[in-house]
Amino acid sequence: MNVLYFAWVRTKIGKGREDVTPPSTVVTVADLAAWLRQQSPGHAEAFGNLACIRAAINQEFVEPDTPIPAGAEIAFFPPVTGG
Amino acid sequence: MNVLYFAWVRTKIGKGREDVTPPSTVVTVADLAAWLRQQSPGHAEAFGNLACIRAAINQEFVEPDTPIPAGAEIAFFPPVTGG
Amino acid sequence: MTVRIQAERFDTGAEIDTLAAGNTAIGGVASFTGYVRDFSTESGVTAMTLEHYPGMTERMLEQIETEARQRWQLEASLIIHRYGRMTVGEPIVLVVTAASHRQAAFESAEFLMDWLKTKAPFWKCEETADGREHWVDARESDDLAAARWGGLPCG
Amino acid sequence: MTVRIQAERFDTGAEIDTLAAGNTAIGGVASFTGYVRDFSTESGVTAMTLEHYPGMTERMLEQIETEARQRWQLEASLIIHRYGRMTVGEPIVLVVTAASHRQAAFESAEFLMDWLKTKAPFWKCEETADGREHWVDARESDDLAAARWGGLPCG
Questions:
Q1: Phi/psi at D109 (nearest 5 deg)?
Q2: Separation CA C58–CA C65 (nearest Å)
Q3: Which of C80, C77, A23, D85 is nearest to B83 (CA)?
Q4: Rounded distance, CA C153 to CA C144, Å?
Q5: Within chain A, where are the H helices?
Q6: Residue of B nearest to C114 (CA)
Q7: Contact between C27 and D20 using a beta-carbon 8 Å cutoff
Q8: Chains D vs A: touching, with 3+ CB pairs under 8 Å?
Q9: Tens-place pLDDT, residues D58-91
Q10: Measuring CA to CA, how many Å separate D44 from each of D47, D127, D129?
Q11: Which chain C residues contact residue D27 at CB under 8 A?
Q12: Which residues of chain D make contact with A78, given a CB cutoff of 8 A?
């Protein structure tokens, strides 16, 4: 599963992209965030407060309870601050 | 009394400015318009429908019932169509 | 804070650049440029002449710019309005507003344009391809004010 | 109807001129340019870097431009958003809309900017004069959506 990180999610984890293989109990975006949080101290810090995390599947914003389809591109990032 | 005309008020009267000496019974802007209407066929046409006439005294829009101060610059014109 | 009434064409881009240059408190610049539209398929209009009331125009535009600066926190503003003869595609009017915050820039630009359309002493005379001219009617909104005088259609 | 995501600076004036040129159905062009503001007296910020999500950015901007064209009758529109490092006074974002009628141009430009601010995947990292960097917090409005996840302050 291909996961992308942006802004301080990226800098806390220390990389912008990684390939992960979560267990089959990880079904939704929220499941994946909770699982990633356990992967390293950097992940733990990035996913420490899920209120601050937004997600996209295949480049569309999604809610935490969205199931992850097979072969999807998942991205985690802070609320946007553009313009 | 110095009176200015713009747009089709000007073209109907045939001049953009004239110096007039109305009788002392002419007190308000509406009085002046009614008196000017009698001065020529062109004036009669220009002031034929007072619903279509706007006025300014000393370069500020005024209502028909505004009294004309001494030495004022009066202007008559159609509703504006700028921008 | 500038108001210009001129016969000459203006360059929207150059005016915006000049207004924004050097003031780093500016977070956003909003602009509106009005053009002579091509109505020729409907009406045969190919050009128009804008008449104005010299002196009163400057006075009214400065008044409304002052009003805008009281309502919104503006870093800079510019109004240019042309008079004289213009052909299809030429720019007629430009409003530019600069502020720290985007909403102030947008709202004040829209306010200035609304006001220009209804209060600035300009009158449009359109020319058709066959050489005829006619004065453009005022918009419906103006007919409310007209009700005070009486009730006949204008001509 | 154009969307551009680029690191290079852009020229607001040239972009507006290009958009309006040659289409005589255009009656009005509205624009908004956002700049890097000088916060240095408050915070010491001298520059910033905008990170974005390549691919998703283009996709989202094209979606919202399509939405704007469905809501308003537009003759032309342009969105330019920069990414990368920018110093105080540099332009960040440009929205230009052209329509027959002024209200459509104004409203659609404001709609596009509102949307860009809340939905386009960009993140600002500010630099202070002492060389430190920090990520800018999202605006309050975003906290409504955040309520679905839980309720702690972000950091």
A1: -65, -40
A2: 10
A3: C80
A4: 12
A5: 7-13, 29-36, 41-46
A6: B83
A7: no
A8: yes
A9: 999 999 999 999 999 999 999 999 999 999 889 9
A10: 9, 8, 6
A11: 34-35, 37
A12: 123, 135, 138, 154
